[in-house]
Amino acid sequence: MASTLITVAPTGAETAKADWPALPTTLDELVETAKRCESAGAAMIHIHIRDGEHQPTLDLGRLTDTVTAVRENTGLIVQLSTGGAVTDPYDHRLRVLDAVPDSCSLTMGTVNFGDDVFMNPWPFVTQLYQLTQEREVVPEFELFDLGHVAALHRLLDKYGLPYGGRVHCDLVMGVPGGMPGTADALVAAVNALPDAVTSWSATGIGRTALPVALAALSKGGNLRVGMEDTLTLAKGQPVTHNAELVERAATLATLAQRPPMSPDEARDLLNVKR
Ligand code: KMH
Ligand code: ZN
To answer: Which GO MF terms does the UniProt record name (predicted)?
Structure first.
């Protein structure tokens, strides 16, 4: 039976710990979260880290310690964010690969991001992509808009396949400024993906989480869930632990006759370094 890759994105860079104490911001909290989410059905973790004051950081020492700790305590594929926070400079975002993750996010273009702008100019995208090839890190292409899908065609045409030969994308939907979190937008984006794409997932921000997950499963895709993207299970029902979102995703995937895949199966799917 086919199965579903569930990625958990537990923290992100946008939510303040003071507003959401359940957000995992310390290394201990992140490791505990990773373990519970693996048990609930996650196979990959998309990581943003925080500093001692719970602020977003791309500090290389902390990133390296995080990769080590998650590897020591779980079998999850470790994906580090190269998006960071909207304020992070390009050189710090490139330096993330020095922490030697299995995978990293790679956003395919600039996008309005609420009241901010998430900057991903083409020269930065191509530099980061070539660095992933050189360092043998499997990229996950983050697509916030249909224009990002077109940019992925352009990137693969010009620079060839990623390390490992698989092309895995994640549709990030419902960001104010990006494509909407609707089934129509999902189908349009998936139908426009390059033929080289071997797997894709989708995530819906905020209240679009559930419609996007249902549309993704219906269209044969995989799921990303977590408090980076969604802080409530339903109106008035805050998420108290990331595992709740993973459990819900696992339930939906099982109902769709595509139960969660194990981290080992996910390693085969993405062909990350073993
Ligand atoms: N925090 C956003 C500015 C990624 O992780 O690569 C970027 C983001 C995408 O979350
Ligand atoms: Zn992220």
So the answer is: 3-keto-5-aminohexanoate cleavage activity; metal ion binding
271 CA to centre of ligand 1 in angstroms: 23
**For residue 134, how many other CB atoms are within 10 A of its CB?**
10
Q: Which of 146, 113, 136 is nearest to 229 (CA)?
A: 113
The minimum-distance atom of ligand 1 relative to the CA of 84 is 1
How far apart, in whole angstroms, are the C-alpha atoms of residue 133 and residue 147? 23
Kindly report, residue by residue over 101-137, the tens digit of the pLDDT.
999 999 999 999 999 999 999 999 999 999 999 999 9
Stated as kind and residue range, the H or E segment containing 140 is strand 138-143
Whose CA is closest to atom 10 on ligand 1? 83
Q: What is the largest CA-CA distance in the chain?
A: 47
Domains and CATH numbers, the chain: 6-270 (3.20.20.70)
> What's the predicted TM-score (pTM) here?
0.99
Quick check: 160 and 172 in contact, CB under 8 A? no
Q: What is the DSSP string of 225-242?
A: ESTTT--EEETTEE-SSH
d(CA 242, CA 259): 19
Bridge-partner residues for 79, per DSSP? 46, 103
Nearest ligand, measured from the Cα of 141? 1
* Spatial CB neighbours of 17, under 8 Å, sequence gap ≥ 6: 23, 25, 50, 54
Report d(CA 239, CA 22) in Å as an integer.
8
Task: Give the three-state DSSP class for 126.
Answer: helix
